[in-house]
Specification:
Length: 123
């Protein structure tokens, strides 16, 4: 009943930029946080950036100064603007949301993942 839909991945040269988008839909009445993780081949999934509904942000050290996370609360959408991309940023990027809603009269709180979007940075 709740899903995250991502867009904006692709192929870019080193030094270039991309913007990822992720929109939550379904029986949602509150989103506590939305963020981005990534997983490169052979590596574990890792946090990239997260933003709470109150506006607090947390970035992984390896993206500080290059990536910016933002949210449009009215649209239940989170964005990740990625600048100065490096080949080591190549990975599948996953959107994540901690949200609350109602389904068939019952309250729920859950963590939802998007399907992932591929980002490839060529050298």
């Amino acid at each position: 009943q709740v899903q995250l839909v991502e867009s904006g991945g692709g192929l870019v040269q080193a030094g270039g930029s991309l913007r990822l988008s992720c929109t939550a839909s379904g029986n949602i009445f509150n989103i506590n946080s939305m963020g981005w993780y990534r997983q490169a081949p052979g590596k574990q999934r890792e946090l990239v950036a997260v933003r709470t509904s109150g506006g607090s942000t947390n970035y992984a050290d390896f993206v500080k100064g290059r990536f910016t996370i933002s949210r449009d609360n009215a649209k239940n959408t989170v964005y990740l603007k990625m600048n100065s991309l490096k080949p080591e940023d190549t990975a599948v990027y996953y959107c994540n949301a901690d949200l609350e809603g109602y389904h068939r009269g019952g309250y729920f709180r859950t963590t939802v993942w998007g399907q992932g979007t591929q980002v490839t940075v060529s050298s």
